[in-house]
Design goal:
By secondary structure, the chain is mainly alpha-helical. It folds into 2 domains: 81 residues, Orthogonal Bundle (Arc Repressor Mutant, subunit A), CATH 1.10.10.10; 142 residues, Up-down Bundle (Four Helix Bundle (Hemerythrin (Met), subunit A)), CATH 1.20.120.530. Helices cover 78% and strands 4% of the residues. It is built from 9 helices and 3 strands, in the order αβααββαααααα. It has a 3-stranded antiparallel β-sheet. The N and C termini lie far apart (64 Å).
């Protein structure tokens, strides 16, 4: 009798622990949403210190969800942490977004066009594996990994072009637009479209359809730029 009773008596404690974890998760989600909105809208300007005690008091929550929210926002590129200084708001510039994505539009379609005739099965397999990891990250909402896999996928597609200097420049552009890409995907803007574009681009590379791949690459970059600028316009 006592053997059966023990698991039953532990159940309320387990449920209480689960409820506490769910409440904390919900509070952290709400805190993250609120701070993200304040940063995107400009109410928390670039360079503003994000002090955990002050934010907790202002939002009416404990430091735990604030700490988790700041960690998430750093993963999205909206905040940055510094030793002995804590977190600060990073800048979101419409002009910078336009310039970076315009440069990508100039260079990346050309790289695709140069890469496809040189592609080997191993190149396509490598890009396919990265794309699978990227899609899995989206499904798991693994924000910090999205940008890294996005960059790796694009660079895997472009690498056979053998245009070393252009590849270096494009890798830098992808690194600089990583935070913006993560922001767009975090807010659910264009997630399915991005997955469709990447899958479509890989298929076109397999078919060696150069003109279509060049056009899709350009459209993909322009869509990401438009989604991000629209997001900032709505927020402000």
């Amino acid at each position: 009798m006592s053997i059966m009773a023990a698991p039953h008596s532990d159940a309320p404690a387990r449920l209480t622990g689960l409820e506490t974890k769910l409440r904390r998760s919900t509070v952290a989600d709400a805190t993250t949403d609120q701070l993200r909105r304040l940063i995107i809208s400009g109410e928390l300007a670039a360079g503003t210190p994000l002090r955990q005690d002050a934010l907790a008091a202002e939002l009416g929550v404990s430091r735990i969800p604030v700490r988790e929210a700041l960690s998430r926002l750093e993963g999205e590129g909206l905040a940055e942490s510094f030793p002995h200084r804590g977190y600060v708001v990073t800048a979101l510039s419409s002009d910078e977004i336009s310039e970076l994505f315009e440069l990508r539009c100039l260079l990346e379609p050309e790289l695709v066009g140069a890469a496809i005739p040189r592609m080997q099965p191993a190149d396509l397999d490598a890009a396919s594996a990265i794309l699978a990891a990227y899609n899995a990250d989206i499904d798991k909402a693994d924000i910090p990994s999205w940008g890294a896999h996005n960059t790796r996928f694009h660079m895997a597609i472009y690498a056979p072009s053998r245009r070393r200097k252009t590849l270096e420049i494009v890798n830098g552009l992808l690194t600089n637009t990583d935070r913006y890409t993560r922001l767009v995907l975090t807010l659910g803007t264009g997630v399915e479209q991005a997955k469709e574009d990447h899958g479509g681009l890989l298929d076109l590379c397999r078919k060696r359809a150069i003109n279509q791949a060049v056009a899709l690459t350009r459209d993909h970059i322009q869509r990401a730029r438009a989604d991000l600028l629209q997001l900032l316009d709505h927020a402000r």
